[in-house]
Amino acid sequence: MPCMALSRPDLRRSSPVPIKQQIVDHITEAVARGDLAPGDKLPAGRELAEDWEVGYSTINDAMKVLTERGVLVAAMGKGTFVAERR
Asked: pTM of the predicted model, to two decimals?
């Protein structure tokens, strides 16, 4: 399954909202809008970090939050996918 193109978030570095939270919000909203459907594969974390000009650890932390919330599911060696809706 190909990686879905995930629009670049408008990250506001001067915002009191941490960049990690802005990324969490961006992906959550993309899923809620239907821009990302259940089963869609997200680009690799390093690719997102480079494309969005943020640190890999920031992307990794955001993905952990989204996985804990059930928005995403990580499959070892396969990638990160949008979780099936509950």
From this structure: 0.91
